[in-house]
Amino acid sequence: MNTIRLECTTGGHNKFYEFLGIESKGRFTVKGLYGAIGQAPKEAVIYDGDDKNEANFEYDKKLAEKKKKGYVVVSRDGKPEQPAAEEKKTVIFQ
24, 28, 67, 74: which one has the fewest Cβ atoms less than 10 Å from its Cβ? Predict the structure, then answer.
């Protein structure tokens, strides 16, 4: 399972959004867990199907939407994210 966590703590916000990428038996599922930091998360399915490229496309679309709203990536697979001088393209499934 791949995880990417974003947080938005600007402008009085204290929110998170976490992507979960699950690959099982030829199916690709991208879930979003979100809510206030420190509270129980809500869950949304972003993509569930057998097309890895479509799963990565839907993930990338949602990631761009969250970044536009001020979220920043804080960790990948539980490891702290180092600030990058330049944003690189990411996929949830390799």
Answer: 24
